[in-house]
Amino acid sequence: LRVDIPALQVSAPLVDLTLDDRGKLGVPDPAARNLAGWYRDGVAPGSPGTAIVVAHVDTPTGPAAFAGLDTLRSGATVDVRRSDGTVAAFRVYAIEEFEKSDFPSARVYGPAKDAQLRLLTCGGAYDPAAGGYQSNVVAFARLVAIHPPESTLPGKNDPHDS
Q1: What is the pLDDT of residues 3-17, one digit of tens each?
Q2: Which domain holds residue 40?
């Protein structure tokens, strides 16, 4: 439902993404600055394997959800709020930039035995004549915990207890 990256002050809703006719992963609506997308035909964040979340670095109207992803540091946390109310908590272990012409798809998208997350956005030089950004920034993260849904016990955030 949502991806939170406290170190970047990001809290972005997630939309479902699929592959296009050429087999490329779609992207969130470029007009929506604070929007990220999850590859719905892949692994759900927090499940064993590699989950993929993408967002724009910028839009025609300014910085977007993953602006600053290239400044994230190892140890940063990423939380993904899931539709069952749980939160999959990840810890970043690497941030790398790859030229689009030499993108390591198997390394980024390939399977993992444990629960992993990849955050992707554009980066590097911006060359409009060559189609835009020339690189991708990828944050690699591992699951550290699954937090249960917040309690709705009487007296805890229940407006009917007033």
Answers
A1: 999 999 999 999 999
A2: 2-155
